[in-house]
Request: fold
Amino acid sequence: MIEYIHIENYKTLLEAGFPLTSLNLFSGLNGMGKSSLMQTLLLLRQSFERNTLPSKGLLLNGNYVKLGMGNDIFSVDSEDDQIKFLVKWEKEPGQKFIFQESPDSDLLPIVSTLDIKHPAKKSLFNNHFQYLSADRISPKSNYEISDYHIRDLNTLGNNGEYTVHYIAENALGKLSIKALKHSSVKELNFLVNLEAWMSEITPGIKILANTQKQYNSATLSYSFIQGKDRTAEFKPQNVGFGLTYALPVITAILRAQPGDLIVIENPESHLHPAGQSMVGKLCCIAAANGVQLFIESHSDHFLNGVRVAIKKDLIDNEAVSLFFLERPFAQTNHSSIIHNPAIDSNGRLEYWPQGFFDEWDKQLDKLL
Reply:
């Protein structure tokens, strides 16, 4: 597990430290820098995958992120000409990554060749890593298939594009983490539990995923339990958008194993409030059982799902870290301020920064 990250001169993170735990939630107004920490992880991983780490440099454009050139990511108020990352894994000294400013290049040269200790054992660099972008699969008739991605790379794809293929191939498999079993079912069968958790978004849902390898595609359809009967199958285009959009998120969490690292942007997108809270709860259960998660969210319902999970002892409060990033208008430099309010065993926050999931209260005050 990654315990700490320190960042210097990257975008609005002029100098910022993040003490990390099992579940790490990042929020803030748009453009305040909350995505920057997660981009740090993605930049390091894509550079490692493309073999520019440890000897060449930081690759800015790749499969995970496309950020442009050096001048696009360098802090405008930096007094240094280097971007610096420090990553500390548990039971290890911190690993420094220092890159030279190169304004017109998408490869920032590394200052000195690194000796990354045991990369094959680190989820940031091995095949126990899953990133889900905010731009995920939408309802359609056919989806991509790739044995290489779901078996060798152990990924659903950055956009969840191989989710349907994964479900089709692993429907009869079992959950690796028993605690993720839904309370309404008695077995660890993957598909049964996927349907049970998805039923908290749309009650009674049944998921039908099949591969058509002769056409290099996978098909997805839904049916619903209605009383004692079961409806005909519906195409994803004729069912709520949020259902298919959430499918990679729920699948990624349920398929997780202890030691995995999962990065998800806006897991609550297109879900009703109860569904958003459920996803927060599900993330807590995974995090309490050996999975490290980095979540970017704007949802107070997701946060409240986490808070309730803490109160119900589904996860220890000290295993959850909250980060709120802001950039005050009156501040003289273009850099983010990071708030890291503690959360107690009853799910109560140490303090609420201005703008931190407080819009409901503000609007309610206006109505009253």
Q: What stands out?
A: Residues 136-255 form one domain.
